Amino acid sequence: MEIPKPSPPPADEVVALRPWCVEDAPVLARAWADPAIRRWCAVPAEATEDGARRWIAGADDCRRDGLALDLAIEVDGEVVGEVGLGPIQWAHERAAIGFWVDAAHRRAGHAARAVRLLAGWALDNLPLDTLAAEASTENPASGWTLQAAGFTLATEHAPRQAWIRTR
Length: 167
Fold this sequence. Notes:
By secondary structure, the chain is an alpha+beta fold. The chain is built from 5 helices and 7 strands; from the N terminus they run βαααβββαβαββ.
């Protein structure tokens, strides 16, 4: 099932979500080099600008194939992070949600705003009933972000927490 592009793109008074574009490759490559992002998020083996361009080029195929939807988080016209859905389990009406924000923009609430925006759009516009996220107990900021975005702690078995948001 193809995932439609959000139209209009989700936004609030601070954060706007939009598809990645090839011009964002340097920003994405810098983020992939960040030790915190590498520690908490899946980063491609080729975390270079060329690798970022290839990843961006493939993101639309993933969306068309119903596998994932990855969106850039913008603040004041600058890409500061990413939020995305995937993997998506259409038969179970469930998807995972993930996010990251670059070091210069952490602790400003941008991730919580972006997760809240994408979660609201996904639950209102896709045949999904549940969004789930995992966070490490060693990274409490992720848990705080998910809670601020309307997710509820479902289980905690150190070192992992499972968070959910339902329709």
